[in-house]
Amino acid sequence: MTRRLVLLAAFVCYTSAAALFQVPEAETLHKLAETPSKDVPSDAAALGYAVDFSVSASTTTLNCLKSGGYSVVFTRAYNPSGSGSFDRNSATTIKNANTVGLGVEAYITPQPKSKTKTGAQQFVEVYQGLTSSGIVIRSAWIQVTSPANWYTNSTNVNFLLSMINQARQYGVAVGIYTSYSDWYTITSNYQGLPSDILVWYYNVYASGVTGESAPTYTDFRPFGTWKVPTVKQFAQVESVCQTTLNRNVYTPGIPALAESEVQKNKAPVVGGFIRQ
Ligand SMILES: *[C@@H]1O[C@H](CO)[C@@H](O)[C@H](O)[C@H]1NC(C)=O
Fold it and tell me: What is the CATH number for 236?
């Protein structure tokens, strides 16, 4: 699985390298035109740009994002409402992203307080929802934010391990979307995760363009098992391509090989676009 991810991730770099310097143009799509545009710091040249949102995206929207220099879209595959359910919007976004040649990753917003479903069961719903839509799932990111949505004891870690173990049984690579502070609060800085699990962290000062942090990893502090991040969300609740979304930078993989890996798959693919 790891090798396949590396191969596939290459596709992202292939597309992002060319598109990277167009990213600032996406800023012009923001409604807050009076906001001074940020210079892209020098070390941002090594990173790709991505967005995340939970609504379903049309090919028109995804083509717009691609033209704006974004290489990957993260789509929500699990809706935590009630006791949680597969989010069908993700199937639409994944298929459309494959159609327009945009990398696509799935994130899971779990329902850790579900009375009826374990972490494993929630992952099964994601897996079955995607595969029954004809989608091959290679990786998924589990959202561990908003402490109010979690318990305040070791149940949280058990829930996470249950979900992660189920994913691994399916051969699906796992990443965690969290922050230093959320991970401390929700898991008491759990350090027992397998070392191949990647971290996607966020840091913003407020919603919107004026609340962005730098699109770099310079503010990353090690926590949990992570010494380096793989994705950073630096902007939340912005409008790009008429879609309300969050913006991210990520570490791209190696170009050409991944592209061929994508072409080998006849079915739409989600995941494996971020370096493993
Ligand atoms: C954690 O807290 C919840 C809610 O108070 C409780 O139902 C559960 O039994 C607790 N779990 C452990 C392991 O203490």
Answer: 3.20.20.80
* Cβ proximity of 274 and 231 under 8 Å: yes
Crossing angle of the two packed helices 119-131 and 89-100, in degrees rounded to 10: 50
Mutate to test the pocket of ligand 1, among 150, 153, 157, 188 (most ligand atoms within 8 A of CB): 153
Q: Tell me the pLDDT tens digit for each residue of 210-219.
A: 999 999 999 9
Flag whether 183 is in a domain: yes
pLDDT exceeds cutoff 50 at 99: yes
pTM: 0.83
Burial of 17 (0-12, 13-18, 19+ CB in 10 A): middle
Q: How confident is the model at residue 46 (pLDDT cuts 50, 70, 90)?
A: confident
Taking a C-beta distance cutoff of 8 angstroms, is the pair 67, 107 a contact?
A: no
Extract the tokens encoding 56: 């379903």
Domain that residue 48 falls in: 2-270
CA 150 – ligand 1 centroid, Å: 11
Number of domains in the chain: 1
Point out the ligand 1 atom lying closest to the alpha carbon of residue 151. 2
Residue 266 in any domain: the answer is yes
Does the residue 262 lie in any domain?
yes
Q: Is residue 276 a part of any domain in this protein? A: no
Q: Give me ligand 1 centre to Cα 155, in Å.
A: 6
Q: How far apart are CA 93 and CA 185, in angstroms?
A: 32
For 227-249, what is each residue's pLDDT tens digit? Answer: 999 999 999 999 999 999 999 99
